[in-house]
UniProtKB/TrEMBL annotation:
Locations listed in the record: Membrane
Family annotation (PANTHER family): AMINO ACID PERMEASE, AMINO ACID TRANSPORTER (EUROFUNG)-RELATED
Annotated protein name in UniProt: Amino acid permease/ SLC12A domain-containing protein
GO molecular function list: amino acid transmembrane transporter activity
Membrane spanning residue stretches: 5-27, 33-55, 67-84, 122-143, 155-172
Amino acid sequence: MGWTYFFASTMLVCVEYSAVATVMQYWDRDTNPAAWIAMAMVVCFLLNVVAVRWFGESEFIMASTKVLLLLGLVLITLITMSGGNPQGDAYGFRNWGAGAMHSYYAEGGDQYLPYVAPLTPYAPVVSLLCGCTALVFVGFDVFSPFSIRGFVTSYFALLWAAVMFGVGRFLVWKRGGKMGFIAAKDADLLSGKDEIDEECRHWEEGGIEEVEKARLAEMSTS
């Protein structure tokens, strides 16, 4: 087991070095990737031979940079999807139409019916109960002696799932929906299908890159 862990850690370092070279090639394709890998190895080596204080400081700075980068990417994505781009195209809301949500219950009539798998819905329910039971007992040692940190770590996911399940059921009840299962013949599988087919056709016909280039060219001339 020890050698397996050592091999996994060694390969992880190699993957990280390769990732550095891959990222740097977005800006500089002329430099040999081996140069970026060598530079990353030197930086990593120096951080491990200096005093632990500087290693900790570098870890803090790099981790903070990663968090700021993630927040920036989320904000940039939200802004550009909402229309904050040079073309003014709110591409994140193209298919909203009359609203983001479609009717869940069908009115009946001629429509396709879903495939009902064997043991449905009992097999998923049994699997869910087994998983919840395992979650309850896997962290049972946090109660003796009681550890608030261990309790949060072991049971937060279970409590959060229960809360969200209750919130979802309440919202369904608030909108006048049924609280139980619905029959297969009442399932609505067609609402929004035309919009989805059109979106798929946009990317599948002519190739993804060609279609996107044509769309951008059309936007720039309009």
